[in-house]
Amino acid sequence: MKHDTMVKNMRKSLIKSIMFGSIIIPMLSLFLISIVKAPTPPVVRNLLEINPPFGGGVSSHDGGTQGVGSNRHDANIDLISGNIYILSETTAGPPYGSSAAWAQARVGSRFSIVHSSFYDATLKFEYKGKFGATAVAYIAGYAESYALIQLIASIYDETSLCEVASKTEIIQEYLCKPGIIPKDPIEISGVKDVVLSSVNLQAGHEYSVQGEAYVKTYAITSVAGASGAWSNFWWEDGYYVRLTKATIRDLYPDAVSPTTSASLSGTAGDNGWYKSEVTITLTATDDGQPAQNIYGVDYTNYKVDDGSWALYSSAFRVSSDGKHKVYYYSVDKAGIKEAEKSIDIWIDTVSPAGLIKINDNAQYTTSTSVTLTPEAVDGTGSGVAQMRFRNEGGNWASWQSYTTTSVSWTLTSGDGNKRVYVQFKDNAGNISPESYDDTILDTTSPDMSNLQQDPSGREIQPNQAMIVSVDVTDAQSGVNHVTLSYRTSSDNVMWSNWIGVTMNKLAGNTWSATIPGFGPQTHVQYKISAYDNANNMATTPIGAYYYFLVVPEFPAFVTLLLLMALTALAFILAKKKFPRKLES
């Protein structure tokens, strides 16, 4: 009875120690929270693999001894490799005694969640160590020993400060007492995945995933004889537990890239051009799959032409004239990048400028049918596309394609100044201010009057020059020049070619020219042609030339005889009329 009572008391004492250890474990978890914190926790985007180095913490405890007994315990970690080193060893007796100890160490890392979902967390351990438990009792004595090694995986909510999942995997456990064959120390090694399944994690929270190795031993011997007990589990001299990797996998992953659309706002022109600066609004969505899989859009990037990429936060503007291209794409919170897109933005805010020339800039025209030669430029804009014309006081003709080749046009009727307007339109629809050119329409020939010749008459003495003058006026374009043309004939049948003489401008509207003298019996015809500045001509009609004849010249003795005859005749006539006066 005394023996049994002693053993029961020893067990009670050890159980208290073990219970104390079960309290210490969660306390250690709280202690480790601050240790495993990373400056910038990685984010789970569908799948996250966390590799060493890790943060961590250690703890080892003496469970106490009674009678003859001893223990050894230790814990250490290497945060670079992820190795955990722990040791627990207890002995008791002979003749009697008890001892207990445990040690634990934990490594891990923080991470954050962007998608509220259910996750699997897999912690991969490697281990190599020694394990054993023996108990030997003599005569009526009693001996008992125990050893345990286990791996613990857990996820802790660092935001709400609570554990959300935990799982324990026992690697080795052994209880040795009378009737059970002792287990001598053996070497154990292996790889173990500890899986936390369907853990509900919330977006916006920060968590830590932690891997722990825990070892515990105790030994008891009774007083009823020579006896002894031993049990241990340790990692030293090349023995270890290593957390090689922690994998967090979303059970409802996002498999679809986001979609971004661009909308443009500005003053729309023609042919896809804008006539003002353009505001670009980018809209991104992440649908196209079941709602439980949607992570949501994380960010959108854009750039203009060959510029640098910029983070999109609000609508932006493109204001410079020219052809631009805006590139953009979005990335969702699962890290899936959308294929790059682009949109063309053509801006032309400046109107073209130009002019026209009527009949190649002629000052006068004699016809209402003219040609217009347009000239226009549009700088770095969209390019000149169309043109239209109108007469002064008239309506615009229809738009027609722009060309630098002359086009036909009809002026309004009636002599006088004529003005034609032109406008140009570029490909964006910008219309130029009105431009114009003037010309003078003159369809009336000059007016000739007061023709004079000196000497007058139709018979001219031989070798006597004749001066011809005429008054010429033109109410529209003005007189440009006047030409006197003459020809000669000896028989009034065969005529010479016309000979032109430019008449000289005298005072007022009078023009004058000289026809040289000719020999006897020379027939002379002449005409006058007057031209105005529009090149209208007024001339003597065919068949109505002016005409004179060079009369023959008499010898001197014939002239003297005629003079004497005329004198005698005059004397006779006078004598008959006045007889008395002549006789007295």
Give structural notes.
This protein is 10% helix and 55% strand. The protein contains 3 helices and 37 strands. The longest helix is centred in the first third of the chain and has 34 residues. The chain has 5 domains: 249 residues, no CATH class; 89 residues, Immunoglobulin-like, CATH 2.60.40.10; 89 residues, Sandwich (Immunoglobulin-like); 104 residues, Immunoglobulins (Immunoglobulin-like); 30 residues. A hairpin with an 8-residue loop joins strand 18 and strand 19. It has 584 residues and is mainly β. The chain is rod-shaped. About 4% of the residues have low confidence. The strands form 7 sheets. Strands 1, 2, 3, 4, 5, 6, 7, 8, 9, 10 and 11 form an 11-stranded mixed sheet that branches. Strands 29, 31, 32, 35, 36 and 37 form a 6-stranded mixed sheet that branches.
Structural category is mainly beta
Number of H/I helices = 3
Number of E-type strands: 37
Distance between the termini: 229 Å
Radius of gyration: 64 Å
Portion of residues within helices: 10-25%
> How many domains make up the 3D coordinates?
5
Q: Can you give the mean pLDDT?
A: 85
Strand residue percentage: over 45%
Low-confidence stretches: 18-36, 225-229
Main sheet characteristics:
11 strands, mixed
**Overall geometry:** rod-shaped
